[in-house]
Amino acid sequence: MTVYRPAPRYLLFALAGLVMAGLFAWELTRRFDAGSALYLVISVLLVLWNTRAALTRVALLPDRITLTAPLARPREIEFRQLMSVTEEGRMGRALLVAYHPHTGDGLLDLDDVETAALPMLQDQDTLYATLAKRTPA
Question: What is the rounded distance in angstroms from the CA atom of residue 86 to the CA atom of residue 96?
């Protein structure tokens, strides 16, 4: 089993957002301003989103990948479910995995497609090559 960890930039962005949230909170203690309150909420949401991305883990097993994110149930995607794997994004390239979900009886629902957006990962090129090779043509 190989575990891929997110890029360190998520932790850096979370820390920067925490500093910004602290500054906006300090400003609100001095004088209430609707703009500062709005930016405080936005800063806190950015901290939460980046912290969740920083704590996400992607495990590559012999027959599947497992995506484990905080406050979400682990998602397992078997290689036979894969439909496509692409790299998406402008500021940073992240993997987007499209796959066919299981039906209640364990078969694949070929009429439905779900996606899993992975965060940017360390050694992402290796994972991308492995998934692209295992994706049915």
Answer: 5
Question: Is residue 121 helix, strand or coil?
Answer: strand
User: Closest Cα to residue 113, out of 91, 82, 86?
Assistant: 82
* CB 85 within 8 Å of CB 128: yes
Give yes or no for a contact between 121 and 10, defined as CB atoms under 8 angstroms apart: no
Segment holding 110, helix H or strand E: none
pTM of the model: 0.84
Q: Which of 56, 57, 132 shows the shortest CA–CA distance to 97? A: 132
For residue 95, the cross-strand partners are: 87
Residues 26-69 have pLDDT tens digits of 999 999 989 999 999 999 999 999 999 999 999 999 999 999 99
Q: Quick one: tokens of 19?
A: 């500093």
